[in-house]
Amino acid sequence: MSPVPATKRCVGPEFFVMSEKSPITLDMTVHSRRDSISKRVTVVMISGQRIVVHVTPSSATAGEVLERSLQALDIKESSLFTLSTMNGLEEYLPLSTDTKLSKVAPSGWKDSTSFNDARCQSSSDSFALYLRFKFFPEDIDTSFKDPNNKHQFYLQCRRDFVQSQFRLSVNQALVLLQWLFK
């Protein structure tokens, strides 16, 4: 196999490049009921990768979707992560694991027809949740058992910094930049 030319390599921040990839699809619907309705939830991972999860809207919880999404990408230490919604001010609002998705979904999401219905392709049929770290670790070097999680934390900090999510003094920003670009 010949090497990939420089023009075809991954160029740019990982969270931008990964957002262009085709999403992974997971099915969490309960197929035992004939009249069951299935809805889509798009989970935006820290890396930018998207996972489209088909759920039963009346019973699906944030914790169930979180666990399946982390399993799909083989991300360990699930207790470090949470799913969040985003409000109108572009702030992330973390969800409890027992929060039913129907409580945070757009109005009409739970009750409209199945995603298989050709008439049903509006924005109310799907909504986005964002994978985030629950807490900032005390010590970055010792807090993560899996090195991939340290990388995920780095990606979240870098993305938040680029998108001006942090309210930092100049000194704090310089310290963060120093760590991010090591």
From TrEMBL:
InterPro entries (UniProt xref): FERM/acyl-CoA-bd_prot_sf (IPR014352), FERM_2 (IPR035963), FERM_domain (IPR000299), NonRcpt_TyrProt_Phosphatase (IPR052074), Ubiquitin-like_domsf (IPR029071)
Xref: PANTHER family: TYROSINE-PROTEIN PHOSPHATASE NON-RECEPTOR TYPE 13
Name of the molecule in the record: PTPN13
Organism listed in the record: Lepeophtheirus salmonis (Salmon louse)
